[in-house]
Each structure stands twice: as C-alpha cells, then as structure tokens.
Design goal:
7-stranded mixed beta sheet; mainly beta; 11 strands; 120 residues; 4-stranded antiparallel beta sheet; globular
Length: 120
C-alpha cells in the first residue's frame, strides 16, 4: 500500500487546515486508516483513526474531524481551532485490520509525512 499525504502548511492559531491522504495498491474499504503526528523531540502519537469505529486523541476532540471516502481510498483530517501545540509532522497510516486501533504498531503502511505549523 502506498500513501500520499497532502494539505499541510503554516497557519495562525485559531485557523483551519485539511489534510488528505490517498491510498493506492492493495487497500480495501474495510482497512483502517488514520493520522498520527510527531513533534520534535517527542514520540509519534495518534491523532485520529477510522474504520467502522473511530478514535480521537483527547487533545483534538471537538476540533478535528476524520473522514474516509472509500470510493476514493482517501482519508481526510479537518483541523479547526488549531493551536501552536498542534505543530508537528502529520503522518497518514493504513492498517490491514478492519478495526481502528490507536496504537501505531497496528499500522503497516505509512505516508511520507506533511508538516503542520501553527503560529501563535
């Protein structure tokens, strides 16, 4: 599975960005997909993942929305009310599982990462 992420950039605090990740190769609509992020000096952490279930990190609930277009094999992350602490490289991931686990170890394929920078 190949994952191509896009949509990162620089935005002021309170602004919005939408990330997209298109999957190609051996991917099925039942496969879980999601977004993780890694800030400098920190470990990679889950942001939001989706399959028939969804999971959001507590820090992004009510601000971020994950969605999936199975016909396009694309997952989106709408990020609103962005904060400086959301600054990180965001990675798209896909799993062979049909359950959206929050652990990065359950994801087999990873995109190249897209930088999101939120200025205060």
């Amino acid at each position: 599975v190949q994952l191509q992420a896009s949509g990162g950039g620089l935005v002021q605090a309170g602004g919005s960005l939408r990330l997209s990740c298109q999957a190609s190769g051996r991917i099925f609509s039942r496969n879980a997909m999601g977004w993780f992020r890694q800030a400098p000096g920190q470990e990679r952490e889950v942001v939001a993942v989706i399959s028939w279930n969804t999971y959001y990190a507590e820090s992004v609930k009510d601000r971020f929305t994950i969605s999936k277009d199975n016909a396009k094999n694309t997952v989106y992350l709408q990020m609103n009310s962005l904060k400086p602490e959301d600054t990180a490289v965001y990675y798209c991931a896909a799993s062979s599982s049909d359950y959206a686990y929050k652990s990065a170890s359950m994801y087999d394929s990873w995109g190249q990462g897209t930088q999101v920078t939120v200025s205060s």
